[in-house]
Amino acid sequence: MKKMNLAFLRMLFATLCLSLLWSASARAELELGKQYVLVSPVQQTESGKNVEVLEFFSYACPHCHELEPVLNPWVKKLPGDVTFRRMPAVFSDKWLVLARVFYTAEALGQLDRLHPAIFNAMHVDRLDLTNEKTLQEWVGRNGIEAKKFMDTYNSFAVQGKAQRAKQLTRAFAVTGVPALVVDGKYMTSASQTGGNEKLLPVLDDLIKKARQERGGKS
Predict the structure, then answer these.
(1) I need a surface site. Which of 69, 174, 200, 207 has the fewest CB within 10 A?
(2) 168-194: per-residue pLDDT in tens?
(3) Is 200 among the domain residues?
């Protein structure tokens, strides 16, 4: 009886191992047109020798807000040969306002602190930060001199970056957010992968693919 139980346990263990191997293999096989699409034409990256992951997002997008707590821990664990960047998507001139908010926070060296706070202000506190009066009041409550923020917000440099974001949104043929682009070639999203949690393994596989194409190790 003990021998039969031992044989059964061994068979069960072997079946489990095969199942896990099959699952890992299945995940590694990216499916073009389903899990990701090609960016055409391929766009230049700003990461030099590093593989670039570029997130197109908008502070007004609830799906971008929901992705943040899933994406941030993943970003912190990225290997040294991968660079992560954010790009505010600009589909029309109405979207330029929030792009300028992003680039203002960046120019003031406050992006890391303000980025999650801006999302919470819009989606938790339901503030309309596209309204300049509301924006100034919110900025003041968050420890930044309102005049300094608005002067930067209205600066030529920030307006130029927002216009550049509009051009790149079109160049990458982004149709919705959040959208993530790996090395200027491969675009994916949670809607393509089946959810935020399933997005991360696909991004990992696309990074490996881009790394191999650059001649690096997988």
Answers:
(1) 69
(2) 999 999 999 999 999 999 999 999 999
(3) yes
